[in-house]
Design goal:
7 helices; 0% strand; 212 residues; mainly alpha; Methane Monooxygenase Hydroxylase, Chain G, domain 1
């Protein structure tokens, strides 16, 4: 029975793949922005991320509309809608991180920000692979679960990095304005990895439903 119900969900997986492709492109641009020293070039990269964020919103709206029209069983409808929503939220947080870097006009980019940017990009690459494999999960449940665990491990690593960064920031930064700006940027980047973990959690639910 679950095989039949799962087959009815397959038309939505290419739409989810398109979503994750947009997010992966945005994460790469965020990392490029974090490595860019020239303010005008940062602004250009931000504009590209903003365009992708708007494209992602359109993609999510289209997917929701198709779900509402479909006869997909509720056992999968809710999970696919939630997955699409979490992917869109992940993209929103990538956009917000890039926006903060630009509007705060960061004087210099801290290496810790770049390291978190690398982690965000790794998250998006893993998520893209997971979503591509959703349409054919037979024999892959252990492999996919390990990928979900990797996302959780990344989030834990970033949490530790965040705590060390904040502890050091409050010790060495005496300028209250810079402290606030840097704190908010790092907070936004760290929050973004939390959203990747949220995606992994809903994917694990789909894996379990497909396994049993």
């Amino acid at each position: 029975m679950f095989d039949f119900l799962f087959a009815s969900a397959k038309p939505f997986f290419p739409l989810l793949v398109q979503q994750t492709n947009i997010v992966e492109n945005a994460a790469q641009l965020l990392l490029d922005l974090l490595k860019e020293d020239v303010p005008e070039k940062r602004k250009d990269l931000y504009r590209q991320i903003k365009d992708l964020e708007e494209k992602g919103d359109e993609m999510a709206d289209y997917l929701y509309a198709q779900l509402y029209k479909s006869k997909l069983a509720s056992v999968y409808r809710e999970n696919i809608q939630e997955l699409a929503s979490r992917i869109d939220t992940f993209l929103d947080f990538i956009h917000d991180s890039s926006r903060k870097i630009v509007i705060y006009d960061a004087v210099s980019i801290d290496p810790a920000w770049v390291e978190v940017g690398d982690s965000i990009l790794e998250d998006t690459i893993i998520i893209s692979g997971l979503v591509k494999d959703l349409s054919d999960m037979k024999g892959k449940s252990k492999f996919l679960a390990e990928k979900c665990q990797r996302i959780k491990d990344i989030e834990n690593d970033v949490d530790e990095m965040y705590e060390f960064y904040m502890s050091n920031l409050f010790k060495v930064e005496k300028n209250a304005i810079l402290l606030t700006k840097n704190k908010n940027i790092m907070q936004s980047l760290e929050d973004t990895t939390d959203k990747a973990k949220d995606i992994a959690e809903i994917i694990k639910i789909l894996i379990l439903k497909r396994t049993f």
